Amino acid sequence: MFALIDCNNFFVSCEKIFNPGLEGKPVVVLSNNDGCVISRSNEAKAIGIPMGIAIHKCKDLIALHNVRLFSANFQLYGDVSNRIMSILKDFCSEMEIYSIDEAFLNLKNMKINDLQKYGQEIHDRIYRWTGVPVSVGISPTKTLCKAANEYLKVTKASPGLRPPSPKGEGILIDKCMTLNTPEKADAALSALDVGDIWGIGRKYSEFLNRYGMYRAIDLKNADDRWVRTTMSVVGQRTVFELRGTPCIELDAYPEAKKMIISSRSFGRYVTTKEELKESVACYTARAATKLRSQGSVCGIISVAIMTNRHRANLKQYYGTTHCSIPTPTGYTPDLVKHAFKCLDEIYKPGYKYKKALVTLSSIVPEDSGKINMFEQDYAFEKNNKIMKAFDDINKAWGKEKIRIGAMGETQPWRAKREMVSPRYTTVWEEILVINN
DNA sequence: TCTGGGGTCCTAGGACCC
DNA sequence: TCTGGGGTCCTAGGACCC
Predict the structure, then answer these.
(1) Under a CB-based contact definition with an 8 Å cutoff, are residues A318 and A307 in contact?
(2) Entry pTM
(3) Nearest DNA or RNA nucleotide to A35 (CA to C1')
(4) Which nucleotides of B are covered by protein (CB under 7 A)?
(5) How far is CA A246 from the centre of its chain?
(6) Residues A283-342: tens digit of each pLDDT
(7) CA–C1' distance A262–B5 (Å)?
(8) Would you place residue A434 in the very low, low, confident or very high pLDDT band (cuts 50, 70, 90)?
(9) Distance, angstroms, CA A235 to C1' C1?
(10) Strand runs (DSSP E) across A24-145, as ranges?
């Protein structure tokens, strides 16, 4: 048996912890640049604000219902997430952190008499200790756990009936769903759209619909050979998992990232190379920090710059190139130099740039000894020490407290975050004040 | 005015190896 | 009459996830 714990409306729930006045109100958290909706309270779902919509498209709804808006506050969400994960670790040491708001537990070696009660306990403790409500799905496969969670979201109505709201708009009403028998699993799969299943996205959903499969149960009963040839081994695995045969193991120790991306849209258009350089330096530094934190170095860096693809009336341009680094490195100044070389190749004046993107790849462990034989790199040790100090300072004193000059001073191109809440749990100055 | 950011896996085809 | 067999690596494209 596996359990999947999924935080409900996670970012919004984090905002509510220190702001109980939000309870019962429509609340929305926005993406970078306060652009689109990435988390909604139940009340916001109920008045019909869709996931992912550009916020300016629902101005009227927001005004009409006095929807509370928040810029994304990932320092807060990340910290709350860590707290929840550590609570879960107490329940079961074999755990996979699947995303910022989800984790799988492997219940294989545990003696649990009443699974439903166990799930309920997980919910209760996390809610009591952090204020975040979670839902719990328990079943023999990870895909069925996902289905159990999905089922909790879509069924306020009696089992087997579709709720009135469209797919993914469901509102959670219960805490734990256990699909530990084929009968229970079938009942849930009969109530779910095929597209609700983990691993079935938009394309496969449309494809399956064309062959008359609309419900998850239809996919579960599909012909093996047909699935294998049309949906590859990935689809095949999904089908087996729906039947209760585990094919996807718990991944408790995820491997180092093979690719690290850092990109942001700008708060306003950028036209000069100088400002592009600042942003590219910033994104490179951010990616390099991540790279070092997993003990890796990278051999390829690529840079892309682009205009606003949503503006048909503007001249469009997407420029990208990459360069390989003879001696794989995690040293920020060197990476920035290479990034600038890329930028020199792709920059064209006369465009209004909206976004830049830096990717590190060919990632290998720092100690893999892949040293360039033509270059005696005496600086290697020294640079490592510098970066170590660099990272330690930023860890102790806050992000980008120490940074390289190329990142610029005022950074006027930075994204807007006009409605950000305090970082209640990670910055002393922003701790909640009860009474002044 | 205004539309996010960061990842993974699989397949097919070409180049190349012995 | 006749043209091997088996393999790796790389890239692009397509699908998916949160």
Answers:
(1) yes
(2) 0.91
(3) B3
(4) 1-11
(5) 25
(6) 999 999 999 999 999 999 999 999 998 888 888 898 888 888 888 899 999 999 999 999
(7) 8
(8) confident
(9) 47
(10) 27-30, 37-40, 68-71, 95-99, 102-106, 134-139
